[in-house]
Structures are given as structure tokens and as C-alpha cells.
Write a structure and sequence with these properties.
Elements: H1 2-27, H2 34-40
Length: about 50
């Protein structure tokens, strides 16, 4: 029983820390351009002239 009393606050704390990290990532612009990286991988970098 004492294990449950210790693990529940730890689980709630970790959940709140994960939620705070998610909101921080949203506010800092981590999810601004989700399609940009997906289309950049398809772009060809061989268009540069040979030196």
C-alpha cells in the first residue's frame, strides 16, 4: 500500500512534466512547419554546378 502512495505522486509529477514540455515546444515554434521537413527530404541537392 505504501508503494502506491509513493508511485501515484511520482506518476502525476512525470505526467505534468511531460505536459509542460509539450506546451513549451508548442510555444517555442517546434510545430510551426511540419510539412517543410517532409518535402525537404524529397528535394535534390545535385542541382549545384560542378566546381
Amino acid at each position: 500500500m505504501t508503494g502506491v502512495l509513493i508511485l501515484i505522486p511520482i506518476a502525476l509529477g512525470l505526467g505534468l512534466m511531460g505536459l509542460a514540455a509539450f506546451f513549451w515546444a508548442v510555444r517555442s515554434g517546434q510545430f510551426e512547419d511540419p510539412d517543410g521537413a517532409a518535402s525537404r527530404i524529397l528535394m535534390d541537392d545535385d542541382d549545384r554546378p560542378a566546381a
